[in-house]
Design a protein that fits this description.
The chain is α+β, with helices and mostly antiparallel strands. The chain has helices at residues 5-17, 170-174, 182-192, and strands at residues 36-38, 55-56, 59-60, 68-71, 79-86, 95-104, 109-110, 126-127, 156-165, 197-207. A five-stranded antiparallel sheet has the order 8-6-5-9-10, with helices on one face. The protein has a three-stranded antiparallel sheet with strand order 1-4-7, with no helix packed on it. Residues 1-32 have low confidence and may be disordered.
Length: 209
């Protein structure tokens, strides 16, 4: 499935208007209440441990990606996408910390540290662009980048979202490059794929310093 030309123009127009609205798109039609995402390392609604905080930009954490696990994916799922987003970052458009695309449908977890090197991800999956791109803070582009909010801010929220898709390859299906931004992929996930988005599972945790 490839997006129609008119849809691509709409996509680009939406991005020009601003990426700030892409993170929290409309409710997913047909989402299963049983589709669940959780972490043995981070309690839902709890505080993120320093082990998973960035080591850079004034933060002194371990920058290890947390383990994640999920269950009850919707019928027909062919791949998953993970995005981790801070809507409270003082950027005008939030801050994207981790993206993983084309996670195979038979995968039900990411081990702790999976996001710290491409070889740690499941075969076929890849770490996409996040907002630490080209800073060196994550040890390499596409790797996990932990929380690092400004000192003195109230604790920021970190939204972990897993999308279940009825396509094997999000980029081929949507006609977007693998090097596309997290916001571009967010538009594809929340709008562009239409009924090829089968479900979304999320949890939120917090961190402040």
């Amino acid at each position: 499935m490839t997006l129609k030309l008119s849809t691509r123009f709409s996509l680009l127009a939406a991005l020009v208007v601003g990426a700030s609205g892409l993170a929290s798109g409309p409710a997913v039609a047909g989402s299963s209440d049983k589709f669940e995402l959780s972490s043995p390392d981070i309690a839902t609604g709890g505080k993120i441990d320093d082990k998973f905080v960035l080591n850079g930009f004034g933060c002194k954490g371990g920058n290890i990606s947390p383990a994640l696990q999920w269950k009850n994916a919707p019928a027909g799922t062919k791949s998953f996408v993970l995005q981790v987003y801070d809507p409270d970052a003082p950027t005008g458009s939030g801050f994207w910390h981790w993206t993983v695309y084309n996670i195979p449908a038979n995968v039900t977890q990411l081990d702790q540290g999976a996001g710290n090197a491409p070889a740690n991800l499941p075969a076929g999956a890849y770490g996409g662009v996040n907002d630490y791109h080209d800073t060196g803070a994550t040890g390499g582009n596409g790797n996990y980048g932990g929380p690092c909010p400004p000192a003195g801010d109230k604790p920021h929220r970190y939204e972990f979202s897993l999308y279940a898709l009825a396509v094997d390859d999000i980029d081929a299906a949507a006609g977007v490059p693998k090097t596309g931004t997290a916001a571009l992929h967010g538009f594809v996930l929340n709008k562009g794929l239409g009924d090829k988005l089968l479900g979304k599972a999320s949890f939120t945790a917090a961190y402040g310093r």
